[in-house]
Structures are given as C-alpha cells and as structure tokens.
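If I may wish for something, please sit down with the protein I am sending here and say whether tokens and residues agree:
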Amino acid sequence: MQLSQTEEELMQYLWKLEKAYMSDLLEMYPDPKPAPTTVATLLKRMHEKGFIDYNQRGRSREYFPLVKKSDYFSKHVNGLIKKFFNNSAAQFASFFTAETNLSSKELEELKSIVEKEIERKNQ
C-alpha cells in the first residue's frame, strides 16, 4: 500500500517528531496551515492503511509511525528501479549520476559509499 502525496508529507513530520499529538503535527506545517479536520482525515486514512498507530491519552491521541522511513524509502526506490530501469540498479545509477548534475566531490562521496558497501558484502 502507498501513501498519497499529502499523507506522505504528514508522515515526514511524524517521522521527524517520532511521536506527536495533532497540535504538534499542525505546528510542523508551513502557513497557510491545513484545517485540523483535514489532518484528522489524513491520520485516519494512514491508520487504516497500517502506516501509523496511536495511544489514547485522555481525549487526545498520541500518534507514532509503524513504518520506518528507511523501509518506506527503500521500497519506493526499488519500485522505481524495477519500473523505469528494467530492474537494473546499474542503469539507475548511470541515469542518476549523469542526470543530476552532481559535483566531482559528490561523485567521489558516492564512489566511497559504493566501495565501502562492496567491502562490507565481501567480508
């Protein structure tokens, strides 16, 4: 299951806060802020989809994510690679490095990351 763009924006705030009440989440939005009823509807849908849960604290709910940001991101990157790059991470990397105007320093950092991952997997 996937989050809509507006649900994903709200989820980003919840990942950042780790636990939050409705008022905390509303504070995270830039002006003009959405109506509380809009955020409540998004939270309800995200709960029904299994992305978040809450603890009842009196009349308030303290929300928290059930899905880790890294897991969500990984699933989407892998889906992107499968859908647009014939399931080839090499094709994705080639496109990414050629089309994103990375500096030499950023490319060197990527190279270092890849080399470290190769070393870790060869152990």
Notes: The beta strands are 52-57, 60-65. The chain has two domains: 5-65, 69-122.
